[in-house]
Amino acid sequence: MDVVIGIDTGTTATKGVAAGMDGEVRVTTSVHYPLSVPGSGRAELDAGKLRDAAVEALITVAAGVRERGDRVVAVSLSAFLHGLAPLDATGNPQGPLITWADNRAYGQAQHIADTGRAKALQARTGTPVHPMAPLAKLAWWKETDPALLRDTPRWGGVKEIVLAGLASDAFVLDLSVASGTGLYDIHERRWDPEALDIAGVREEQLAEVVPTTTALKLNPDVASAAGLPPGIPLIIGAADGPLANLGVGATPAGIAAVSLGTSGALRTVVDRPLADKAGRLFCYALTEDRWVIGGAINNAGSVVRWAGQTMAEGFDRPAAEAENADERDAALLVEAAGAPPGSDGLLCLPYLLGERAPWWRGGMRGAYLGLRREHGRAHLVRAAVEGVCQQLALVRDTFGDEGIAMTEVRATGGAVNSDLWVGVLAAALDLPVAIADTPEGTALGACLLGLHALGDLPDLDDAAALVDITGRTTPDPANADLYRRLRPLVEKSALAVTDVLTELDRIAPAPLPSTEKAVKG
Predict the structure, then answer these.
(1) CB neighbours (10 Å) of residue 439?
(2) One MF term from GO for this chain (predicted)?
(3) Measured between alpha carbons, how far is residue 145 from residues 107, 139, 236, 410 in Å?
């Protein structure tokens, strides 16, 4: 069978898959690397390792395809958003990649907001003004090292770095990743002059933006190492979020995609660039006429992992006796399911890693509100799960404010293996939750976009029929009503404690890690 290889560069691993017209994944691989956290607010990756991991994943998957007797007809790329690194004139990295999780540009993002420019910028670029965005990161460089900013030949992110290793073409970037920089006007289809001025970069320092279906040429040396024919097309592809929607079949109207891994996101597809009036949603391209709007949250499965690390050690309970962290998390969730919906009046603001949507405020911290003596570990863990799902529901409510209707969500990620997570999510969103059998959904999305670029999948909505659904959970009406009544309290509490948390940061800032450590993004 003819297959497309999808290469998905993520925060802690690069995944490779091979899939054909039927959407079946035939070969998979994963190349891991550590996320370095060398200081407070910093989150970096070795940019060279990202480039090398993409090459390694391609070679490994291509070998697996040959063993099966299949034929590779194209390679297609996915990359996570908001990374930034200095590059030389040929696109090779000259320093670490600063990831989306890096918070050093908090002051610059706040300054843009304080000067009243943030909403207009977001309306034009589709990207919230936030420390995650390259716009704010470049403004930080402008303030801290203007000579480096000025003299660096090129600036780019994950996709540009991977292309430097895989492609033999000009310095280009796909429309999807460009739409996530905060520097690109998604309506006029050009680098935004005001954003460039704020960032302190020149247009010639940034890549030429091309459609996500653009076919480049795979580097001949890489093609030879992978055993692929010379001239095989390299589809530039898109960003990971939009491709995740495609990979779970969430492109038709009314179907949204939810990712519940270490972090989370809720996204749906529209047919034109859309800027919500309140500036709460991002808008990123999938193709020139299909756009993904939504919101990402920083905290999901990471909150339960934190609970396992802080609440289960040393207890004579099943969660403490688990052999590894995954088993401990599962035991905690089973225990938490014994607590009642609403956690007996306990609210959790689960912002352990700060928060993004729908408020896009840097510097947020987590909190429990309403603690009483009778609350136990089960209540604390369940309240954390409810807090995460309520945050996604706040994003969903924003869709409603824009007149975007939803009838179903398709969920992927490690958390969907828990009945508690899925049940709470369905009730909080008040929508049926279908579990998509696509563990490598983003990389599969890259494969499907590759098939679309080749003309073999003319209508992207046809991808929905290629995705198997392994289960569907409908919302419990009583729980949905309870979460609907609690949700305004979540938003009110989060906004009310902002000043307190800001003052805490001044008095007791986050400690510097003593050594580099690997965490999931």
Answers:
(1) 15
(2) kinase activity
(3) 15, 10, 32, 44
Please answer whether residues 179 and 125 qualify as being in contact, where contact means their C-beta atoms are separated by less than 8 angstroms.
yes
Tokens matching residue 132: 């995650």
173 pairs with which residues across the strands? Answer: 209
Residues 6+ apart with CB under 8 A from 519: 12, 35, 37, 43
Indicate the pLDDT class of residue 518, thresholds 50, 70 and 90.
very low
Residue 413's nearest CA partner among 396, 433, 386 is 433
Exposed/middle/buried for 468, CB within 10 Å: 0-12, 13-18, 19+? exposed
Strand pairing category for 433-436 and 408-412 = parallel
Cα–Cα distances in angstroms (integers) from residue 417 to residues 11, 261, 397, in the given order:
22, 11, 25
**Residue 232 in this model has a pLDDT that exceeds 60:** yes
Please work out, in degrees rounded to the nearest 5, the angle formed at the alpha carbon of residue 267 by the alpha carbons of 23 and 429: 110
pTM: 0.90
pLDDT tens, position by position, 313-366 = 655 555 555 567 888 889 999 999 999 999 999 999 999 888 889 988 767 889
Contact by Cβ (8 Å): 266, 231 = no
Tokens of residue 375, six digits: 């609350």
Average pLDDT over residues 501-515: 68
- Say if CB 342 and CB 487 are below 8 A apart: no
User: Which of these, 251, 241, 239, 246, lies nearest to 176 by C-alpha position?
Assistant: 239
CA distances from 58 to 62, 126, 219, 436 (A): 6, 31, 12, 25
Give the relative orientation of helices 325-336 and 377-401 as an angle to the nearest 10 degrees.
Answer: 80
- Which residues contact residue 51 at a Cβ distance below 8 angstroms, ignoring those fewer than 6 apart? 92, 93, 161, 162, 164, 165
Q: Quick one: which H or E segment has residue 235?
A: strand 233-239
